[in-house]
């Protein structure tokens, strides 16, 4: 806390030296979340008991702007209630930097940003903040933006090392070694069009003899289209992946379509389908055929119980087909949503004992969520989800048991007050 007070004091003192047009604000987020996990992320094995815990995100955001310069600093602490004793002399996780960037507006159409920052685009399927995670997701990168009227082109670059080394050292963080991307967006009447090209390089050791460090690059590219009027809200996306990863060829793709209709001002119904390519379990080729959403906010897709793609799960597997519906109802300060999902594999699931191909149907998940705007800066949200798994899902989630009741419930309070604002 003393460190946070010192930072705030320095910022206030710094801005007092210049009388040019300036803006500064500080806001806080406190977000504790209770979860009951009884088959969350994977089928719960027989004889295993459910668990519960409370996690919390605490963020302090500083925003400063003077003429063409904008600066943002976000400090956060992520904890599980009880992971630090009541008389502990230090915090287990400490204070981390979630965002720390400076942006300079070169002109009305050009700007450049450098530092730790969130890279989030479109529906966040490929690049997102992953706000559901208490720690979120941000990148150390440079981003250049060209944004004339009705057009935006963002170009980003990143190069990572785990320390200031004097000679070549393996990058052990488990992150990409290098990354470049370009994202373009425009609107044509009620149609939104986005194009994305993403190049990610991951370091690997070529063999155990000479132990040479190499970097292979994988390309993800595609489009995201949206259409919206007073009643209809739809989107269509397609992404392909090619290149190499750890000396293996990559050939994968993802396609999705979603359509929603506002029956009344309060009630909306929608239907959607997504196909993420996968690889047959008895396929002996070295080609990577399973699509990887890379930096996507995967919790928002394919069911809230996070059985697929969240946290690296289901990677290099049989892929997924997700047929889903969504019903949402808003009344006064309340928001309700019901989302059933029917999951099928995109490639063959094979029994590991008999080597027989199994049914592609993996199961059905039903998600229910509710939100209440308690008052300004205070929101209460919660949900309940249940997975009705199959024997095919048991193969993928061994040693989980589909016959067990697999469910998950959560309740979260988000408090977001602005604690200081100043403008001159």
Query: What is the N-to-C succession of helices and strands?
Result: HEEEEEEEEEEEEEEEEEEHEE
Mean pLDDT: 94
Largest sheet: 18 strands, antiparallel, barrel
The structural class is mainly beta
Cα-to-Cα separation, first versus last residue: 28 Å
Shape: globular
Q: Quick one: how many beta strands?
A: 20
Rg: 23 Å
Description:
- The chain is mainly beta.
- 5% of the residues lie in helices and 53% in strands.
- It has an 18-stranded antiparallel β-barrel.
Write the layout of secondary structure elements.
Blueprint: H1 2-15, E1 22-38, E2 51-66, E3 69-80, E4 96-105, E5 110-117, E6 139-146, E7 151-159, E8 178-188, E9 191-205, E10 213-228, E11 232-245, E12 248-249, E13 252-262, E14 267-276, E15 320-331, E16 334-344, E17 361-375, E18 378-389, H2 391-396, E19 406-415, E20 418-423
Antiparallel strand pairs: 1-2, 1-19, 1-20, 2-3, 3-4, 4-5, 5-6, 6-7, 7-8, 8-9, 9-10, 10-11, 11-12, 11-13, 13-14, 14-15, 15-16, 16-17, 17-18, 18-19
Which key terms come to mind for this protein?
about 425 residues, mainly beta, 18-stranded antiparallel barrel, globular
Task: Give the structure's gist in a few sentences.
The chain is mostly beta strands. It has helices at residues 2-15, 391-396; strands at 22-38, 51-66, 69-80, 96-105, 110-117, 139-146, 151-159, 178-188, 191-205, 213-228, 232-245, 248-249, 252-262, 267-276, 320-331, 334-344, 361-375, 378-389, 406-415, 418-423.
